[in-house]
């Protein structure tokens, strides 16, 4: 019988550990060729950051930009440029590449070039962006492995803006392309898409997923659910842009700045004329989708969103035209030729926008319901008025917000490549640079470990180092031990970190640091000391179990200050669960737990965030348990009588057939506890959580558990634990790895 917890779980889980991408794809595109039977792609190409960095840094970005600029105005017959300039189209492409980023788990964004793959390549909101990428193919072909699609799309957005008259704030390379769709991202319930019912529309997406509706980057231009109410649209805009950490000013700057350029395309009814999206299109279309049978299907006859028209009188030039138009006129609803709701000036004489293709033809400017939100919502109105009256303030706000939008998922400045990288921004979680003349050496490391172990217990030091380093997430490369932000709010108060105990440990380590740094020229940062002390504790725990090991250590972390830490932006990194510490937070509304993720799925998600393999995840859980590193001091899963030692006891006792496990009566709100009893005597031996028992129940994890439980594996277990531990400690050391 399914447990109460199982039964309560629905599949709204925000990542794909309980549901496979292929099942989604199979439903949407039943004819899609299934490549799963072949091994994962092993390209002889740049698929890791180090080799990409080497190649990218050899590029002459000036030359690349010139090449891209050449494409801007070379109109192609198969997709003619509006106004003879592809700039606006490329700005939309870059925005849609970046705009899937979501703060709550750092997934999405342009960092992997995932716009090329399903489902994103076929989302209705990404309509005709397949053409934008094909226009760029000559550039990609020329630079090959040296320029990833991820970098090319964002750089092209910048070149587009510059070619239309606005200098950008900067550009950083470093996006390494993926070769198949990410298996771990849940974009939303893919049952019904926007285009299926323009006006009626698809499923409303749960917080905290990026968009409000499936198939949209952010919000419906016609208003929520197709309802043309600018105030309700403002509500949706505020909600969704804040999921990407954009405040009101940044939001207005981005929407107004974006719609200073280009036009919408809705020459005729999409339902009657537009063919399947790229993933569902016929083989001879060669990856192109949305082929239209309406007249020429391109240029003046193009159908993309179904809305039609431009916002300004000069859509290929950076100017104040968007706000001029917005404030100059009163607006009334109308329908585009495709039947979508949009707005035009009440003054019927206004005819100021030139046609994008036809000589001598002009039109009224248009606004979407979402554009009018920038005038109707009182707070947005204040920002819009300020920008209208102060074009320089608007330009600066747009440049900075554009840089944030397009670089948010790239991580700290140490991951940003190339000569166009601007100074670190607060949202990049800056850390001070390292002074190598003060670097500690091996003898200092030994001395510091011993000093830390004199003041704190093994478990205290292991937990503190883990708390510091395991805040890292591989999705947007934030968090980690560098910066020593575990000393600062908000991280120092996170419940998972047992704040009271943490304070005691940090005070003790500060004393160690003070004594050491006061002695001579060598200096140790708290960030380094926390890791170093954790390493010393792991060595001590291994030693207590009879294994002599040394955990590798590379000095070079520095301590960030409170001023360098944006508390609100950092708060999204707080783990609501950490299976490695057997911690499961209370189920808050809209937390992954609330969305149906099981404790074991949350463990897998954390392992993903830490870049761990199944084996590394397993060995870390097993070792952390015998060391006794549970949050809150719970004894769940500590399947050993030698707590504090690094041994394979967790796996030995989990695989021991003399123990029978039963769900315990004490079922808490979020957690299921199990009792392990002696089959013969009925005596209670252990307590454990779902995260513990999954290593005995899941066949793949059980295989790993049996491997580590074997008598010949004690040394290998410690060796593997040390390697996985070191990986976690080093996750954010881009200065060393890359
Ligand atoms: C409330 C948020 C937004 C909504 C609902 C929205 C919606 C749309 C729609 C429906 C189109 C027409 C697509 C077509 O038919 O070709 C469009 C075009 C465009 N959007 Fe947005 N957009 C939003 C925000 C942004 C942002 C933040 C940017 C960039 C910073 C941007 C840049 C553009 C550009 C440049 C075009 C013109 C593309 C072209 O000329 O081909 N938009 N937008």
From TrEMBL:
Domain of life from the UniProt record: Eukaryota
Biological process (GO), any one: hydrogen peroxide catabolic process
Signal sequence annotation: none
Keyword Oxidoreductase in record: yes
One Pfam family, short name: peroxidase
Gene Ontology molecular function, alphabetical: catalase activity; heme binding; metal ion binding
EC number: 1.11.1.21
Catalysis: reaction(s): H2O2 + AH2 = A + 2 H2O; 2 H2O2 = O2 + 2 H2O
Names of required cofactors: heme b
Ranges for domain Plant heme peroxidase family profile: 129-405
PROSITE patterns listed in its UniProt record: PEROXIDASE_1, PEROXIDASE_2, PEROXIDASE_4
GO terms for cellular component: cytosol
Keyword Metal-binding in record: yes
Keywords: Heme, Hydrogen peroxide, Iron, Metal-binding, Oxidoreductase, Peroxidase
Alphabetical list of PANTHER family matching this protein: CATALASE-PEROXIDASE, HYDROPEROXIDASE I, BIFUNCTIONAL CATALASE-PEROXIDASE
Family, as annotated: Belongs to the peroxidase family. Peroxidase/catalase subfamily.
Protein name: Catalase-peroxidase
Organism from which the protein derives: Triparma laevis f. longispina
